[in-house]
Amino acid sequence: MAIESRGGVAEREKSTLSIQFVSGLVGAPITASYNAFLASVKENRELQAEGSDRSTRHIEISLPQEVSYQEGDHLGVIPQNEPALVERVLRRYGLNSSDYIVISASGRSVAHLPVDRPISVHDLLSQCVELQEAATRAQLRELAAFTVCPPNKKELEALLQEDAYKEHVLNKRLTMLDLLERYLACELPFERFVELLPPLKPRYYSISSSPRIQNDAVSISVGVVRCPAKSGSGEYRGVASNYLASLQPGNTVMVFVNTPESGFTLPEQPETPIIMVGPGTGFAPFRGFLQARQTMKSEGKTLGEAHLYYGCRNELDHIYREEVEQFERQDIVTVHTAYSRKEGMPKTYVQHLMKENTNEIIRLLGNNGKLYICGDGSRMAPDVEACLKEAYQEIHAVSKQEAQKWLEQLQSEGRYAKDVWAGN
Description:
Elements (H helix, E strand, L loop, with lengths): L4 E2 L2 E2 L6 E6 L14 E10 L9 E7 L11 E5 L4 H11 L6 E6 L12 E3 H7 L9 H9 L4 H9 L3 H9 L5 H7 L7 H7 L6 E4 L10 E7 L2 E3 L6 E3 L1 H8 L5 E7 L15 E4 L6 H15 L7 E7 L8 H9 L4 E6 L10 H7 L1 H9 L3 E7 L3 H17 L3 H13 L3 E6 L3
């Protein structure tokens, strides 16, 4: 919703929501329509070795009989905000989590909100809206417009300036809730607060299992995000990863299976050579690939060469290590492991190991092989691509432009697939 400001002074925007407190639940709230289903958690265990300062969870989730998946698919998870975060909102607005409300909307669609049916304040805040996204400038204007204390109002309006907004709000990941707690003179109504919040979006995780091993359950590998808050106050905790980490066997979670359009699937012919690049939790889909290859080998099928370029900080950070070593002993895959923070060793990333094996990689790709990259799309994937183009250019004595065309041709032929995400 566009919010105008005249002469640099924020003006109040009237909410198009109406919230009425009621005595109890009358009907179930509308849930997000992603063909999601309620699934039971079968297993939730730590993958990091004892002594690691990180947490990565292996989570196994049951599937209904009518739901199927294939290696390379994603599991969409509809998360919930942490209770402590919800409690902060309740405290700021003096509400009880057990209060039931009915939302009436006018003027525009609010598809993510359960309109015209009772929902508890707790469920509304935990299941429907994003509470941890950095405040937008439109939200800042609203906060300023509802702030009655002139000095506070001036401070909020100052944050609307581009440089100030970037430095003090965006870079520090300050949320609307953070600002409401800082500026108690802000009288933004609860209904307007809810209306300004974006919908709580599903998070996607690469499935780390193969239906050829177990078709009634999927597993995902979740790196739990916990780090000092950029605001300098407290800890930032990823919404979905901490929600998933908190689940116990027998708990339920709303999920759905999603097939990406990137062609991130095993080749139809088992003898096709494959090269997999997946540092950290980027290994997740390749665990499913290797389980599938293990099954195919047990069925007597001939497997093409498979190389896995895996990276992590050190041995404590090496997830699924025993499984991977077993796959290698069974000649399912050849593993190349890069440690970036191993004591007494130079800092090594996957692209460094690939550079040592460029002749082999280019040979396999020249023999109709397929390349997969999963993980950080902001640094790792571009570095790997640069390594490959440089190798192709050197081996075939061609120009940079021709090396770029070669990589693009691999992608257009379905022989180069990426499953990447933005880095922090």
